[in-house]
Recover the amino acids of this structure.
């Protein structure tokens, strides 16, 4: 499909999703989901004893969705000449371990600054699809995977962040992270839109997270998950690290989202308390 056709498809899809969202938001108050959740203990465990870092280290060579360098660091002041060290950073919002705010894929969604603190501390659901992702780089997290998690662990808690553990985090220092073929198409796992629709319709999940470069799987041409999940007032976290160190249920994620006015996302320091 030509670039122009893709953009036309994307625009019409954005409009229809937006109309759908406005309709459903009016009925269900989707945009303020976090505000409607009943008060609950912030930590699933009474006394967490470990903080696990779910953040990859950012550097100029960090792999990016478009394959171009997205982070630049340049000294402004140096201790030898200026008495102290201070750098300039130049970066794209969606690089490293980072947030996708609703505004990223909607005309009038909330910016990253408008995410509420109560949405950034969440019960963490870890859905392990490593077995199928090992044999298939195009694997997607499906409703069946959510069903298997629910059978083993009970209902998805209100206000949860649901994370896909595909095992892709171990590839972060190599070409396998993008896994682009000769035609340029990438191959890495992501959420299937039927799974995120299930989360929208049947749970009060506020966020999804992936250990890959995109909420949608690498081959996706229509960004179906981005265009449905984010306009529904939810957010995403991409390039999450170290999910394999966590239990399937019982951890609490703390998302240090940047509070940039009008930001569509941004690099975040993300932890799990276990
Ligand atoms: Zn994204």
């Amino acid at each position: 499909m030509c670039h122009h056709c893709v953009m036309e498809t994307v625009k019409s899809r954005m409009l229809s999703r937006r109309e759908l969202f406005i309709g459903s938001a009016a009925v269900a108050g989707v945009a303020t989901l976090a505000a409607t959740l009943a008060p609950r203990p912030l930590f699933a465990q009474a006394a967490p004893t470990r903080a696990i870092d779910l953040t990859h280290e950012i550097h100029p060579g960090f792999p990016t969705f478009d394959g171009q360098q997205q982070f630049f660091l340049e000294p402004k002041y140096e201790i030898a000449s200026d008495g102290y060290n201070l750098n300039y950073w130049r970066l794209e919002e969606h690089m490293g371990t980072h947030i996708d705010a609703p505004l990223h894929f909607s005309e009038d969604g909330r910016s990253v600054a408008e995410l509420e603190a109560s949405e950034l501390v969440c019960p963490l659901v870890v859905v392990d699809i490593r077995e199928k992702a090992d044999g298939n780089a195009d694997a997607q997290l499906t409703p069946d995977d959510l069903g298997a998690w629910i059978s083993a662990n009970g209902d998805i808690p209100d206000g949860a962040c649901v994370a896909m553990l595909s095992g892709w985090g171990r590839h972060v220092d190599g070409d396998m992270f993008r896994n682009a073929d000769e035609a340029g198409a990438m191959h890495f796992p992501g959420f299937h839109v039927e799974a995120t629709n299930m989360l929208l319709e049947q749970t009060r999940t506020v966020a999804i997270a992936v250990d890959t470069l995109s909420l949608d799987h690498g081959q996706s041409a229509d960004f179906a998950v981005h265009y449905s999940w984010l306009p529904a007032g939810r957010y995403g976290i991409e390039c999450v690290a170290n999910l394999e160190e966590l239990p399937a249920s019982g951890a609490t994620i703390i998302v240090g989202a940047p509070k940039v006015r009008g930001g569509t996302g941004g690099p975040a320091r993300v932890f799990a308390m276990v």
